[in-house]
């Protein structure tokens, strides 16, 4: 019986409109393939990376700023060259992509939780609570996301100390970026809830005696998932860019735990001395990753809006 249910569920997924439109869109398929490749390479970084950039004993300062292997002066041990500390660029990109993706995905998860809960409460309960929560969101949106992230990051470093911040840098960045960008979800969820709570199925649930939390999370929320899914895709790219910007400004990942942003920051100091590869290769990987995520977000937006999507 369970096997039949799994088979029928898999058949429904394959026959769904989402899969149909995905298989018709070559840009979406290419973007998904690149994104999946990034995820796999990041997960397998400890296995496939030629060197471990986190282990100081595996690199030598005498190998610093070596060009890529195919250029004069390059070393075949370092395909994409080395950075200012002698770390293999290819290895740091693999590990750095892992850090950047982790921060992006977990930060969006935190944004989701905060935004959905606040948006549901504001839209369903309404009244003074709605005004209070939305005015707070409006105040935060009046500042740029990066400004809020910089302020929160500076507060965390001052309160917890630089050493503690560096030790838990990934967790700190997840919290900082999550706190900075939750209003996007809250406003979207609130708008959807205001439209949904007037419908008959919500009135029927109230008549049946269901409590407000069950109505909000079991009945209203599933009907708000389409815009949330679209926003989440774009927000992953925004979170990765926010982490890169914070690391570039020295408020993100420490030097000994490279992310794509911190690699670009390190290389920027050497780009005019001729060591362009330290910044160029991590920068290209970051741009490509953000691009494919944004392309997937645009595709999802079009699919969920039949007035735009033409198949």
From TrEMBL:
Keyword line: Cell membrane, Membrane, Transmembrane, Transmembrane helix, Transport
Matches recorded under InterPro entries: BP-dependent_transpt_permease, MetI-like, MetI-like_sf, OppC_N
Pfam families, A to Z: BPD_transp_1, OppC_N
Ranges for domain ABC transmembrane type-1: 97-297
Cellular location(s): Cell membrane
Keyword Transmembrane: yes
Membrane topology designation: Multi-pass membrane protein
CDD domains per record: TM_PBP2
The UniProt record lists the keyword Cell membrane: yes
Transmembrane segments: 27-49, 103-127, 139-159, 165-182, 220-241, 276-297
Family membership noted in the UniProt record: Belongs to the binding-protein-dependent transport system permease family.
Protein name: ABC transporter permease
Organism, scientific name: Pseudaeromonas sharmana
């Amino acid at each position: 019986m369970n096997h039949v249910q799994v088979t029928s569920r898999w058949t429904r997924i394959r026959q769904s409109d989402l899969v149909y439109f995905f298989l018709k869109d070559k840009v979406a398929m290419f973007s998904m393939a690149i994104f999946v490749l990034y995820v796999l390479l990041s997960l397998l970084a400890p296995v496939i990376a030629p060197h471990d950039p986190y282990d100081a004993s595996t690199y030598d300062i005498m190998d610093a700023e070596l060009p890529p292997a195919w250029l004069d002066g390059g070393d075949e041990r370092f395909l994409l060259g080395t950075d200012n500390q002698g770390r293999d660029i290819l290895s740091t990109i693999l590990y750095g992509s892992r850090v950047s993706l982790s921060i992006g995905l977990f930060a969006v998860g935190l944004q989701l939780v905060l935004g959905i809960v606040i948006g549901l409460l504001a839209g369903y309960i309404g009244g003074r609570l709605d005004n209070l929560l939305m005015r707070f969101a409006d105040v935060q949106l009046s500042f740029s996301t990066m400004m809020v992230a910089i302020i929160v990051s500076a507060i965390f470093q001052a309160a917890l100390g630089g050493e503690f911040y560096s030790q838990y840098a990934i967790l700190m960045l997840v919290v900082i970026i999550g706190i900075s960008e939750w209003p996007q979800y809250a406003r979207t969820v609130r708008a959807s809830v205001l439209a949904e709570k007037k419908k008959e199925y919500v009135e029927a649930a109230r008549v049946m005696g269901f409590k407000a939390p069950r109505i909000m999370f079991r009945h209203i929320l599933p009907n708000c998932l389409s815009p949330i899914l679209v926003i989440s895709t774009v927000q992953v790219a925004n979170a990765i860019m926010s982490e890169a910007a914070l690391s570039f400004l020295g408020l993100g990942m420490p030097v000994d735990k490279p992310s794509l942003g911190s690699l670009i920051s390190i290389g920027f100091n050497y780009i005019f001395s001729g060591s362009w590869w330290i910044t160029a290769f991590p920068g290209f990987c970051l741009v490509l990753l953000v691009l494919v995520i944004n392309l997937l977000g645009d595709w999802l937006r079009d699919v969920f809006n039949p007035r735009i999507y033409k198949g």
